[in-house]
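Colleagues,

For the teaching module next term, I've prepared a clean inverse folding example: a structure given as tokens, and then the sequence designed for it. I'd like students to try predicting residues themselves before seeing the answer, so please don't circulate the second half yet.
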């Protein structure tokens, strides 16, 4: 399958689950947070659209992404969406979607080491 023909929102759909799963494991295994209420509160620092947009922009500033990954990011940011959550503006939402999309792209490219590298940069902030 040609990954360039996949809708970027499909990448984001997949990337969202991978990103959230990674964060949940990090909070449980590495930060050793013992209860669900605290896990939920701490996860917001990573999985909110505002946080994801901030991480994406930080990684772009660090020249982290390859040209191919930047292409996916641009496609996701420029995708014409009809709605966005009420708790953030459309630009923030599109940047968060772009981060999820590039993770989904990495996953479908079987580039798990790249996902790990990306997440390592996010979790070191």
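(Answer key — instructors only)
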């Amino acid at each position: 399958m040609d990954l360039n023909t996949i809708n970027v929102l499909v990448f984001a759909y997949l990337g969202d689950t991978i990103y959230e799963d990674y964060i949940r494991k990090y909070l449980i295994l590495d930060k050793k947070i013992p209860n669900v209420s605290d896990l939920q509160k701490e996860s917001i620092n990573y999985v909110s659209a505002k946080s994801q947009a901030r991480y994406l922009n930080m990684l772009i500033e660090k020249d982290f992404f390859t040209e191919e990954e930047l292409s996916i990011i641009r496609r996701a940011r420029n995708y014409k969406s009809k709605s966005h959550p009420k708790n953030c503006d459309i630009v923030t939402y599109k940047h968060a979607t772009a981060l999820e999309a590039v993770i989904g792209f990495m996953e479908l490219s079987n580039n798990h080491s790249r996902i790990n590298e990306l997440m390592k940069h996010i979790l070191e902030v």
